[in-house]
Specification:
The protein has about 80 residues and is α+β, with helices and mostly antiparallel strands. The protein is about 35% helix and about 15% strand. It is globular and about 35 Å long.
């Protein structure tokens, strides 16, 4: 958690690759607008996908997340 407490964003040109952002529907801290902010970091496609679960949806929604990641990788 130390990294998140000391990180200081430095603006740089957007990436030229697609970005896919994933979040938990019930996450009280990382809401859709925070995920949507990643859109500014690319000149290519951006997709936001909300998964069932909270901040730890990586564990609770693992099958759905892996399926969504597979679709994202196949799409690009």
């Amino acid at each position: 958690f130390r990294l998140s407490e000391t990180y200081l964003y430095q603006a740089e040109p957007p990436l030229e690759c697609p970005i896919s952002a994933f979040g938990g529907i019930a996450d009280p801290r990382v809401r859709p607008p925070y995920l949507d902010a990643w859109r500014e970091q690319t000149t290519a496609a951006f997709r936001r996908t909300m998964m069932p679960g909270d901040h730890f949806f990586l564990s609770s929604a693992e099958p759905q997340l892996l399926a969504a990641l597979s679709r994202e990788l196949d799409a690009d």
